[in-house]
Amino acid sequence: MSLINSEMLSNSAARPAARISRDACAYCQGHPNTRPNGSVFGPPGQKGSAPIMNTEIHVADAGAHRSVRIGDRATVRLPQTPTTGYRWQVVAPDPRLRLVDDRFETGLSPCGAGGLRVLVFEAVGAGPVRLQLTKNRSWGGAPPIEEFAVDLNVQPQE
After folding, report:
1. Domain spans of the chain?
2. For residue 21, what pLDDT is reported?
């Protein structure tokens, strides 16, 4: 993960409006553009800098319906233990969602322990989207051991 310094946050020419985790740096916690959910957006009054919203989706949200706008992000966090060979994968990618990040996060757990598969999608087209993932191995042809789905209603920007 790259570090973000205060100059980057305060200089709108150095970065477009972006969502930055509050955990990324201590500066974000006191930044005037930080929302309670930890997202940061462009300087106030900057033309064309509509805030990028982030919708967090967890395993408990299976089967839920969420609304997002074009340009917003949906971050899916699902438990995974990579050493088992099972990994979360998107079943049928929808062109209205673009995968912008796919990573595995661990806490201070020992090597080989479980963690979270984090998939970040950007909404790029309006309409209903069923985001479906399965946890399976990429080899062997065995059926998935887990399934996860959430319905997103992608709305146009106003």
Report:
1. 1-52, 54-155
2. 39
